[in-house]
Amino acid sequence: MSAAPRPLASGFEALDLCHQQILDHLTRLTALALHVEAQGIDAAAQQQAADIEAFFSGTARQHHLDEEKTAFAPLLSSTDAELATLVRMLQQDHGWIEEDWLELAPQLRAIAVGNHWIDNAEFQHNVEVFHDLYLGHIELEEKMIYPQARTLAEARRAPRVPQ
Ligand SMILES: [Fe+2]
Ligand SMILES: [Fe+2]
User: Fold this and answer.
1) Cα–ligand 2 centroid distance for 20 (angstroms)
2) Does residue 52 lie within any of the structural domains?
3) H helices of 40-145, where?
4) Is the Cβ–Cβ distance between 59 and 21 less than 8 Å?
5) Ligand 2 centre from 155 Cα, in Å?
6) Which residues form the domain of 112?
7) What pTM did the predictor assign?
8) Would you say residue 140 lies in a domain?
9) Distance between CA atoms of 65 and 141, rounded to whole angstroms?
């Protein structure tokens, strides 16, 4: 007899889990930059660069789409104008993160295949900018947006009591 399939994580659980994965990959990215600075590009750096590039090009981009649907969209129609402004700012951040990523991704792909053409100072700078922007973005989401979006989703799910 086969085991019953495990239920999929709910929308918000999946978003939380993904934040953990993003934070983990940001730490790995910083470690990679230090490694490249100190030891240059070797086999370990190539493998790390390939893994990190694949994660941010795939899973992290999908996270932004899921988040905009699950957490942002319901809050954009909120009557709380300050909250709606904050959500729009975070949405704009997704655009900045993508722009920074488009600078950094080719450098990681070059490291992954052992190309040494990258400008190390520029690589270090791009890593720092990407890391700091993403970290601040996640902190703000977890503190200011996720709790409100969760509360709203729960309120919408709650059965209506007949008057
Ligand atoms: Fe986000
Ligand atoms: Fe997020």
Assistant:
1) 10
2) yes
3) 43-57, 59-67, 73-76, 81-112, 120-140
4) yes
5) 22
6) 11-154
7) 0.89
8) yes
9) 14
Backbone angles phi, psi at 158, to 5 degrees: -65, 135
118-149 pLDDT, tens per residue?
999 999 999 999 999 999 999 999 999 999 99
Report how far ligand 2's centroid is from the alpha carbon of 87 (Å): 12
Q: Which ligand is nearest to the CA of 14?
A: 2
Give CA separation, 25 vs 52, 121, 148, 162, in Å: 6, 21, 27, 49
Give the residues of the chain that fall short of pLDDT 70: 1-9, 159-163
Determine contact, residues 68/141, Cβ cutoff 8 Å.
no
SS3 at position 8: coil
Tokens of 92: 């704009």
Ligand 1 centroid–CA 86 distance in Å is 12
Per the structure, the count of domains in the chain is: 1
Q: Which residues have C-beta within 8 Å of that of residue 50, sequence separation ≥ 6?
A: 108, 112
Q: Which ligand neighbours the alpha carbon of 12 most closely?
A: 2
CA of 87 to the centre of ligand 1 (A): 9
Identity at 109, one-letter amino acid code? R
Q: Tell me the CA–centroid distance for residue 115 and ligand 1, in Å.
A: 32
Query: What's the CA-to-centroid distance between 91 and ligand 1, angstroms?
Result: 7
